[in-house]
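Hi U.,

Before I forget, here's the chain from the pilot set. I'm dumping it here mostly so it's searchable later in email.
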Amino acid sequence: MRNVFRRSLFLAVLGVATATALPTAMVAQEAALVAGLDTAGMDRSVKPGDNFYDYTNGTWTRDTPIPADRSSYGSFAILAGQIDERVAGLIQETAKSKAPTGSEAQMVGDYYSSFMDVAAIDAAGLTPLRPTLDSIAAISNRTQLAYFLGTTLRADMDAMNATNLYTGNLFGLWVAQDLDDPTQYSPFLLQGGLGMPDRSYYVDSSAGMAAIRTKYQQYIAGTLDLAGIPGADAKATAIMQLETQMAQAHWTREATGDFAKGNNHWTRAEFRTKAPGLDWEIYFAAAELSKPARFVVWQPSAFTGLSALAKSVPLDTWKDYLTFHAIQARTAVLPAAFDQQSFAFYGMVLSGAQVQRDRWKRAVGATNGALGFAVGKLYTARHFSPAQKERAEAMVANIIAAFSARVDQLAWMAPSTKKEAHAKLAVLKVGVGYPDTWPSYTGLRIVPGDAYGNAERAGVYHLQARLKMLGQPVDRGEWVMTPQTVNAVNMPAMNAMNFPAAILEPPFFDPNRAAIMDYGAMGTVIGHEISHSFDNLGALFDATGRLHNWWTPEDLTHFEASAAQLVAQYTAYRPFPDLAVNGQQTLSENIADLAGIAAAYDAYRMSLGGAEAPVIDGFTGDQQFFVSFGQIWRTKYREPALRQRVLTDGHSPGEYRAFTVRNVDAWYPSFDVQPGQTLYLSPADRVRVW
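Structure:
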């Protein structure tokens, strides 16, 4: 599900892998980023006013193939590939260093090495999973079912993803700042249980979705058969029927993104009456949630529906469902046949990747997921200088100042609303590069050669770490992205942002080029994240993080009218004849793109002190700014991946994010955009939010 607690810049849809070493030749393939303007990647035969994305990226798009192991490719993926190479080198050095047992260095090296040891994983077979499968087989009544379901609750890294709080377990947990009382953490419970990305994959009647459902059911049967479980076809049919019933109970992405609908506080006793069917006391005891007296239930009707299924669906069907998901959840650390079969569906069918990603790349991802901040210490010590941090912090300060000035200039906004907006800006917590205080992994046991056990213990450790936050003071300095992540994030309820070290690299940030280009690239990213505190969701929180309306009725009406205008603009974009961008689903990100580019443009202009920037490569300062913005959104997708993104992601595809410029007045004279050109909007039709 969409993460309503974090607003991130980007969500990459990537494939998965097979090789077992870090090939040096790989560097040449990934090193396709260009510092400054990539003039060779532009297509200047296209008028900027007709298609600004093609103008800034057309030649790159035409000449750059999507690597076979990926379902999409572009600026983020290329930089992420370079970062992964650096991280893999650091981890391999650490693995060879024979660090003291129990140290973070030992944990990082052994986790990675164990994941890479495919021979040991194959030799172990299903033995590591057997205790879980035996526990499922032993379930003989609904009480035992509730207990086992409770043991599956995780605050795992999928559930903590920056754009989706989706979980493959029946319910997911997120411990976050309470929306009514921002001084305390609360346990948020979230819908889950599906094996495919979203309810639409189960309920959409189109032929394409029907074909995917058939292949998913075949995958379920194939997985059970591979595990030696008899009656696989019949069991797969029943599992598919159960997941379809779950999907029918699930909320849509748009409904899930509505804070007012999601902020439901239930006492422990209310679960029995509001969501009957599941033995909640047994579930909470197994999930180690016996102490909280109150929970936030984000999709209440989904909980009612899912809980009812715990009672109405045959016990044997539940056991088959749990068996399949227990296997699927750990295919990366099970024998190769399971891993490859999982890729055939999740990688090829759902995302369109042609081959699995190299094993070392997946090992980096797995190690980052389990020990991300320990890896981040290694990364920032080697690859992020104090000068980079200082330069980025200065840019953040400049763009916050520009955003503040834009608030002052809003003729439609009442003084009382402006006062509240300035109060939020004044206490905005910004983290650049890495956290002030590094999280500890004390107590997490990583065993050499035990890839499966390491993954299990890491999942439990992260759950317990979140549970320990309950009852503690809220930490607004918490980082939710590791320093080696190519992304950025705003946490509206916390009124805080993270800009990881890894994104402070070309093409986003480069001290060796004109600052204008940095403002057009990283500056718009910074502006994007700042504005998330004031988008259609972030604007619902005051400076303390409390959920309440701080707008005058007239201001809110004006804001909502502009938002509706933006919804209509993006809904008109159609990646496929049968599929349009969901303007409501992507609204907050589209607002952030628009407000971000406006604030970054003002900051760049303010930095010049009234002078004009020098012309570079024949481009004026304004042209450098806008081209830099367009080029960070260069992205290519395979069709299944693009369809999945449009259906499930809160971000618009890159091409349409580049089109944000059509709402910015300064873009028109910069490129002589005239009426009649495709992207031209009359001044009255240009959306103006912040």
